[in-house]
Structures are given as structure tokens and as C-alpha cells.
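Data card: per-record layout.
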Amino acid sequence: QLQLVESGGGSVQPGGSLRLSCTASNFNLAEYAVAWFRQAPGKEREGVACFASFDNATYYKSTVRDRFRISRDYAKNMVILQMNRLKPEDPASYYCGKLSGSMCWPPWSPDSWGQGTQVIISS
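The structure for this 123-residue chain is written out next.
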């Protein structure tokens, strides 16, 4: 069955870095866009970054644009979210989602989700 599995969450100091991975199973990552989302307690889930397999274009939420980078490893069927210079407002559960097509049409609307991975910023 189609699966998305996140990993790499944890606790990091403000200003630190964290690398999240989303591993896709039973579908071809080259055929679909994949986006990262996050949801903090009491808030709605929001899109953070999206990778469009159509043309390898990337898209970012404005507040993370200069700090986060989304990329893919087709050989490993994996989408990466590299997070740098983390801020106190970044803690959340991070999820990856598969879109229905190969482009990041707004709003990003996944048809499949992973279970999420936790990101904590220590003080």
C-alpha cells in the first residue's frame, strides 16, 4: 500500500538545524509533488514547503523561505526538509503529504499523509 513515513524529528537549540526525511513507498516519487506541513498545538496545519516533481521547482512558506530547504532523493524515494536557524515558533508536528499531481498548485492538498514527526526547540 502507498505509504509516507517521516523521520528525523527531535529537540534542537534555537538557531540549530534539523533534517527531516519523508520516505515514500509503493508509488513513484518522480510522478507526484510532495509537501511538508506542520501543526502546532491549538493551530491549524499549515504548508511549509513543496517539491514539484514536474519541474523540480520548490515553494516555501514565506517565514521559512530563507531557512528551510526541500529536496528529493529519487534513488531512495525520499523527500528531505532541511531546517536551519530554527526559531521558537518552529516547534510543531511535521507531516509530509503526497499531492494528486506533479505540481504544487495552491492550496497544497495532499491525498495521502504520513504520521508525523515532532520538532522541539529547547530553551
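Known properties of this structure: The radius of gyration is 13 Å. The mean pLDDT is 96.

See the next section for split statistics.
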